[in-house]
Amino acid sequence: MPEEKESDVKYHPKEYFTSEFQAEIDNLYMEILSECCFDPTPTTARFNISYFDVEIDGHKKTNYQRLGYCAFINTVTSLVFRRYFSEKAKFDPGFLIVDTPLIGLDQGVEDAAPESMRTGLFRYIMKQKDVGQIIILENLIHIPDLDYESEGVNLITFTKGYSEGRYGFLNDVVS
Q1: What residues form DSSP beta bridges with 158?
Q2: Which residue of 73, 96, 100, 103 has the fewest C-beta atoms within 10 A of its own C-beta?
Q3: What HEC string does 127-166 produce?
């Protein structure tokens, strides 16, 4: 049997994404956007297989609303796939790390996203305990005022202090 050269092996992953997958992902987008109080309320959310990203009301994420919405929508995309993996994947990682999901949503008073979006996102995340761990890295000024302790959230504040709080992400590593 002749050996195949690496350049002869073709892998076309988009062929594995069925219409059933498309429908499930689209439904998860609508559900999670709604639970996160996305504003303005979308009428459609579709995962576009050809460029592998979401469209909301027919608009690409990069053309939708303002800069901060991209970070928010990227976080929702991570949550959509995290949920899909927890329900369908053979190998579910069981955790998600999100860096600054609210960055840019405070771009000036008239451009600022509604507080309901920030609160909705964090409330949604707090309800997801049954599908694994979520680690959020966010600036304190962006975090909504919620009762994290009663929800069992382990809130760690990096203080860059030696005696109060935790210096940084890695224990005992200081700059």
Answers
A1: 166
A2: 100
A3: CCHHHCEEEEECCCCCCCCCCCHHHCCCCCCECCCCCCCE
Tokens of residue 163, six digits: 């005696």
Owning domain of residue 131: 6-151
Q: What is d(CA 78, CA 40) in angstroms, rounded to the nearest whole number?
A: 20
Mean predicted lDDT score pLDDT of the chain: 86
Given this model, what pLDDT does residue 130 score? 86
Distance CA 145, CA 131 (A): 24
Confidence of residue 15 (pLDDT cuts 50, 70, 90): confident
CB 106 within 8 A of CB 112: yes
- Given a cut of 90, is residue 121 above it in pLDDT? yes
